[in-house]
């Protein structure tokens, strides 16, 4: 009996001593008082970015939050974001990997979950110079325009169907198909879905693998934060092994298809899978790294662009003045006899501002993936001990009334009045991060979001369902790493252009 009491008492004493050591040795940022063992876990609300922003109002723009026994520091203004992502970038460039992230990434053999070091620098170079170079982004433009025009054609068919007259459409369905098809075509060179929305066998398997990955990752939440209790929540080694084997099998099948196609044609295509296979020897890329990079593209690109566009459409439907102004610009520049292309973006400054304002108010990843300190460092006058995680609350930074006038108002004009970079150079607006870990595919994401919004606005007028008021649109977020709308937007679409402009422009590259 005494033994059963000694073990938990010893563990609690050890934990209290550990926290006391931290408190006495380091000047940690202020924050809510942690409970023994669990830290602040039970105090954190489901929408973490909003919860941390509320705490920042009480404790200041840099706070300590304990996830179990793991220290997490959250910064919520642009000055501190600059310290984290620029001034101390190298010391804070490692990545915290949960057990599931470690399994999925083969202990950081990819880009997203790799620690900063020789491997990260190498794969980052591959992404910057090869996969996301301006030349390749332009070469892949026909795929993006194909998928966006396929979306337009699908909406047109549905909203002009006599049975649907006056009925609202679920916007998420259409933009989700664009994001899915565009991502799989860029990464794998495969359109798993036909024009009727029916998936082939590989597409069904791809969907199953992504769904299973989410399920496995979510199964470990509590145990991840209390390392010395992990023995009570063992990793399902067999389940992760099966998942990894299933993912690798599908990826290798696709890689082999591309290898055979290159042998037959004598040339490589622009898709990422072809690019990585042809660059494998040049950059000494292992098969694990190639597979990891391909699935990074899926993870980073599948949902984020669709999330931004859905939020943008919700704001445009809620703010008809902005919708009308964007359409007037499109009508003036593009007219009614052709459709918008990416080459038109430079002549459509207000449309670009609409996309930028959407990303300001609704960043798809409101809390950056945590950076991990590889050395003791000071931020905002406080100590960040080695091993602590640091989060930048991008959502809070972009709504800071100290740097944004009327920050809660959807007003794209603010970016006509002052040009603000959103690719990591201006720390007031960080939808793609900044510094060593800035998203290498930022321009690709901007192009797709702008194209989708441009086509949706040029081809259709959008209104809320009859009997509904703009203020009744649910603008709350769904909890999670990325911020889907809690209630997907429903809207009535009315065509604006001649019927011959609603045809898909297919591209096979």
From TrEMBL:
Q: Which GO terms describe its cellular component?
A: membrane
Residues annotated for heme binding in this entry = 439
Q: Which cofactor does it need?
A: heme
Keyword set includes Transmembrane:
yes
Record keywords: Heme, Iron, Membrane, Metal-binding, Monooxygenase, Oxidoreductase, Transmembrane, Transmembrane helix
Membrane protein topology class: Single-pass membrane protein
Recorded superkingdom: Eukaryota
Q: Name one GO molecular function term.
A: heme binding
Gene3D superfamilies according to UniProt: Cytochrome P450
Q: Which InterPro entries match?
A: Cyt_P450, Cyt_P450_CS, Cyt_P450_E_grp-I, Cyt_P450_sf
Compartment annotation = Membrane
Q: PANTHER family from the xrefs?
A: CYTOCHROME P450 98A9
Question: Which family does the similarity line name?
Answer: Belongs to the cytochrome P450 family.
> This protein is called what?
Cytochrome P450 98A2
Q: Which source organism does the UniProt entry give?
A: Lupinus angustifolius
């Amino acid at each position: 009996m005494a033994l059963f009491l000694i073990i938990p008492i010893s563990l609690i004493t050890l934990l209290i001593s550990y926290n006391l050591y931290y408190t006495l040795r380091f000047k940690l940022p202020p924050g809510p008082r942690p409970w023994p063992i669990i830290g602040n876990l039970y105090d954190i609300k489901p929408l973490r970015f909003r919860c941390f922003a509320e705490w920042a109002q009480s404790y200041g723009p840099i706070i300590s939050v304990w996830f179990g026994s793991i220290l997490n520091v959250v910064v919520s203004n642009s000055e501190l974001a600059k310290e984290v992502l620029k001034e101390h970038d190298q010391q804070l460039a490692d990545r915290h990997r949960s057990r599931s992230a470690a399994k999925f990434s083969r202990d950081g053999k990819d880009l997203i979950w790799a620690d900063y070091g020789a491997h990260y620098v190498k794969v980052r170079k591959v992404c910057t110079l090869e996969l996301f170079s301006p030349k390749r982004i332009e070469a892949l433009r026909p795929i993006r325009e194909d998928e966006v025009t396929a979306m337009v054609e699908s909406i047109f068919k549905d909203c002009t169907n006599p049975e649907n007259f006056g009925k609202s459409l679920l916007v998420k369905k259409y933009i989700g198909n664009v994001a899915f098809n565009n991502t799989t075509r860029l990464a794998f060179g495969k359109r798993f879905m036909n024009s009727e929305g029916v998936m082939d066998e590989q597409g069904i398997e791809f969907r199953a693998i992504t769904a299973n990955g989410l399920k496995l990752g979510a199964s470990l939440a509590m145990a991840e934060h209390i390392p010395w209790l992990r023995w009570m929540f063992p990793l399902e080694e067999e389940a992760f092994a099966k998942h990894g084997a299933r993912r690798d099998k599908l990826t290798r099948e696709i890689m082999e298809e591309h290898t055979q196609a290159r042998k037959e044609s004598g040339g490589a295509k622009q898709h990422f899978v072809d690019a990585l296979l042809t660059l494998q020897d040049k950059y000494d890329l292992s098969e694990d790294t190639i597979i990891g990079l391909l699935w990074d593209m899926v993870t980073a690109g599948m949902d984020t662009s669709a999330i931004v566009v859905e939020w943008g459409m919700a704001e445009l439907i809620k703010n008809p003045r902005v919708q009308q102004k964007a359409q007037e610009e499109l009508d003036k520049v593009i007219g009614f006899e052709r459709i918008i292309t990416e080459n038109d973006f430079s002549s459509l400054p207000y449309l670009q501002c609409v996309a930028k304002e959407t990303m300001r108010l609704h960043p798809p990843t409101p809390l950056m993936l945590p950076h991990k300190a590889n050395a003791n460092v000071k931020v905002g006058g406080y100590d960040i001990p080695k091993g602590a995680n640091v989060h930048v609350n991008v959502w809070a930074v972009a709504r800071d009334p100290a740097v944004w006038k009327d920050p809660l108002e959807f007003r794209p004009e603010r970016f006509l009045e002052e040009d603000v970079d959103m690719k990591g150079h201006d720390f007031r607006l960080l939808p793609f991060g900044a510094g060593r870990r800035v998203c290498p595919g930022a321009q690709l994401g901007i192009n797709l979001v702008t194209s989708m919004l441009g086509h949706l606005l040029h081809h259709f007028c959008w209104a809320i369902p009859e009997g509904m008021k703009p203020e009744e649109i649910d603008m709350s977020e769904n909890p999670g790493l990325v911020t889907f709308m809690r209630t997907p937007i429903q809207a009535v679409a009315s065509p604006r252009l001649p019927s011959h402009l609603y045809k898909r422009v297919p591209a096979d590259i």
